[in-house]
Records
---
Amino acid sequence: MDKNYTFSVTLRPEPEGGYTVLVPALPEIVSYGEDVPEALAMAKEAIELVLESRAERGEDIPEGDAVVHHKVSVSVPVAA
């Protein structure tokens, strides 16, 4: 029987284009995608591989997380 996990994924835009993919709950994952859909696909593949590898070695598998990140923009007056 399969168990479902949910992990937060960070996509960091790179100056040369594309996105570096990080999974905070699985620090061994660092991947890359040319665009957001590819970066998310790479994240999913990397997460599956890491969880399978950890399970084969009998290592702990984190329960995942359901953290949702949002951006908030603010304006702050600049002193003259």
---
Amino acid sequence: MAVALLFLGVVSVGAAAILIRLADAHPLTTSWSRLWVGAVVLVVVAIIRRRPFPRGPDLGRAIVAGILLAAHFALWIASLSATTVAASVVLVCLQPVFVVVIARVALRAPTSARVLFGTAIALAGAVAIALDHGGGGPVTSSSTGNALALGGAVAIAVYVLVLRGQQADVLATSAVITATAALAILPVALLADAPLTPQDARQGGWLLLLAIGPQVIGHTALNAALRRLPASVVSGSILGEPVIAAALAALFLGERIGPQTLVGGVITLVGVLVLVRAQPSASGS
């Protein structure tokens, strides 16, 4: 059962980038749609199950995490319109690397030689991807898109560090975080004059599928699997997300992976795998 949940979670999350491209909506419209639907589902379930909502310092941390989650989605989703799916998803998967770097620099956390080795490998692969402007299909790799994806990775890394050691109920905390993220995205979307509703039924269908699939089903399945399987197994399996995303992009979007991005992606994923094996908590969210 745990393996089935893990498989469901990885496949669902891996399909997110393709659904975002197929929806072809403004990045802030996509972020808002994904977050408010997820927030409604989580808040309703938390209330029905009578879960205690966080208070005091835990509430403050949940609110900060929500703002960071909003930034993550806004940056990463925007990157998908400016770079290839493969480059975007691989670069955003550098989250564990940034967790280690930020924890070491800002928190002076101890770091083993193996963690540093994995970090160096992953960063080398990321540099190769960031410098690649090749590829094929409707969208090619670009410095702007790659930078946005890296910004999304940094935002979610800080999110992980903010939530480390959180003792409040997981479901209720997730509800507060997602609701906060939706509220944080709303004024930004309004200022940018981004539509808050789908432009047509086709776009609405893809956005709904994105919210229900990757956001609600995918993340819930991964959280459930994390309770039954070691964190290192779950973290390592999530590295299958770029593979799934790239395969789906080639199949449905006609997007080919450039040789440099392919090699850089493999190097990056090897480095992140070394990292999560050496320090499982680095990617736990």
---
Amino acid sequence: MKISRYANAKSFNDALVYYRVHDKNFAKINNKIFYNEYKDWFLKQSSSKNADFERNKKYFLLKLKKLEIIYLLYKKKNFKLLLKIIKLPNILLKLKFLIAILLPLKFVKYLRK
């Protein structure tokens, strides 16, 4: 996308990467690592004043909040987590996470497969 600002670019519809999802997927097992890496990236981009990042900042912030809630769901279910869920702007996400907070952790893990 960035290169199209100053040069002609071409595209093709072939798959460049295949991503396998399975029970022992690293990103699913290590929610804390994934959340912390994304948070660090978000903070670096916020301080760099990148125009593309600023234009999509709301999207990235929502993703960061979702990752934090997923991490906290597996860590501990408490009132603080409930407040974070209630503060989400999207009603469907709120509903999804409120159901997840009420269900047993084994069932939530099963649904995430």
---
Amino acid sequence: MTTRRPAEVFHPGEYLRDELAARNWSQIEFAEIIGRDKRLVNEIIKGKRGISPDTAREIGAALGTSAEVWMNLDNAYNLWKSDKDVSEIEHRAKMWTKYPVRDMTLRNWLLPSEDTKIIESQLLRHFETNRLEDAPQLAHVTAARRSDSDEEGFNPIQLAWLYRVKHIADAMPVPKYSKNKLRNALEKLTAYREYVEDLRHIPQLLEECGVRFVIVEPLPSSKIDGVCLWLGNAPVIGMTLRFDRIDNFWFVLRHEIEHALNGDGRDSAVLDSDIMGTQGEETLPDLEKKANAAAAEFCVPQAKMDDFIDRRDPIYSRKDVLRFAKSLRVHPGLVAGQLRWKTGRFRLFTNMLVSVRDEITPVSMVDGFGQVLPVQI
């Protein structure tokens, strides 16, 4: 929207002079009428003084007009006198409206600057566009849930996170991707489910399969759990660790691996938000149903999980959960996580849902949680 500047706007004293002349009133007479010093009237007429709300009311009462007329004349004149160029402010507002500039700056994805052009240049590089008006290439995506997205794809916060994952993955050298290696790697991953310490083997295992594994702390309100996207012929798995729990970690990781094995995300990145809460929803796309089923089966074989629930419901003891988890050679937190979800009793065995962040982040490509990757874009 372009703001047009009038060629000239007159001080309200000009209009007051005309009104007094039309009534054959002198400045002294008018000062007596409104009960003010004659110097005030003279300074207004000469354009040396503005009009206060009280003076506007007094002038309006004397001349039979509203006070707003004189306040508007004074405001219009003051705005006209102000010759400040606000185009840069308008441009900054446009950038802040379209993208989460402040959040990105706090995460050191953008360098702070008072120069609007520098901020714009960084945004264009981050979102890989030539103009601020252009839609980023990754804006059109597949999402498990779109409640926080617009009709065309990710919201700006999710999009900023996604491009950070992409830039980090771009800088990671990995061998040629092998779908067979990734499928065969599932057996090794299965062996890592029992002890949280074994999570440290995951990044290297995925790298050997040609999969780029990246952890980027989520931006506030992004609600992202993970993403599967492709760089050329190689998949990228990005995770947020939004819920720092062993059950959520394994479910999200296996979910994204299933997307990679199925080739999901080749045409448009697959964003997954709140995916443990989307199990069983009939409205989900088929690719999400398949990934959810694979993830749930990986965490705890579902037939055995259902049998355990049928036998123990509604009373579950800690001893029963530990014994069942040991028989499956999985961490008790995986059983607890599935049990909580399937029964809807989310207060059960919270202490079994151990943290994974300190195990997985030291051996992974991580941005956030106090770490900043020096990735050039």
